[in-house]
Amino acid sequence: MSSSTDNSAASVSNKKRPVIAIHGGAGAITRASMSAEKEQHYLAELERIVSSGQAILAAGGSALDAVTEAVRLLEECPLFNAGKGAVFTHQGTHELDACIMDGRTLDAGAISCVNHIRNPILTARKVLEVSPHVMFTGAGAETFAREQGQEMVGAEYFFTQERYDQLQRAIAADSGVLLDHDGASQSGDPLDPERKFGTVGAVAMDALGNLAAATSTGGMTNKQAGRVGDSPIIGAGCYASNHTVAISSTGTGEVFMRTVAAYDVAALIEYAGLSLEEATHKVVQEKLLPLGGIGGMIAVDRFGNVALPFNSEGMYRGFARVGDAPSVSIYRS
Ligand code: ASP
Fold this sequence. Notes:
The chain is of the alpha+beta class.
């Protein structure tokens, strides 16, 4: 598969203006079976959410606040596999993972395997702000969330019929784990719902030049209970450092973990002197793909350059620089 770095974004000349980029997962495109209505729905939601992040940055808000709010809104939108709309485990439960990182301080917070926290990204943010620890998992993460006054919900809150049907198809086909956007489409989604990765994420640079990244997911359909993917793992599914870059990944989590994908981009920039576009291309096309790592990432570097590369057929994505109209897309340009 060829490169899909979003050159239109990477070549925006007016650098150092605050900018935010978001993703809603990557996967296979079923243009033929796609419904135009559903495509418009996805694009409208992406635009609404990236505009909210842009407004925070335009008002002088921090990159950390902008990515927190963008990911919270993505979690609230059932079109995407995070928060409401999360995929099912093999056992028919939900297990959500999230991570956030502040590029200014390298502070980070992450949670994994939770299923009663309405907005995992807000709890990850709390971990970043108030805990000496970096990651909580399972029951301990939920106790922490309760103690911090986070909104808790019954496990049924995360149920959606579409995701449940997806699990039944995966079990019937004995197809192993599925990325949220992978499989035979029966829904008219722009990206085949059973051959797509549905993780959500946001990266931003604010007016002070600070970078931040956030990622949240339900993981992969039909995953075993207890399985943790790359999304809450710093350096794999999420990374931010003001010295280099902010990254949020989506795709075959196991391969993103094995390649330490997000940090690898930062290392290529810091130690090998690669540009953002070169570094993200190398990781997405040359490191992930040979190991079967399908998906993509969104990235903003310390100069305000944006790259939105993926090696799948499409990725729900958008970016908005303060002062410009947002740009949203699904397929290769
Ligand atoms: N990376 C996520 C995981 O492996 C899946 C996704 O991006 O959809 O849990």
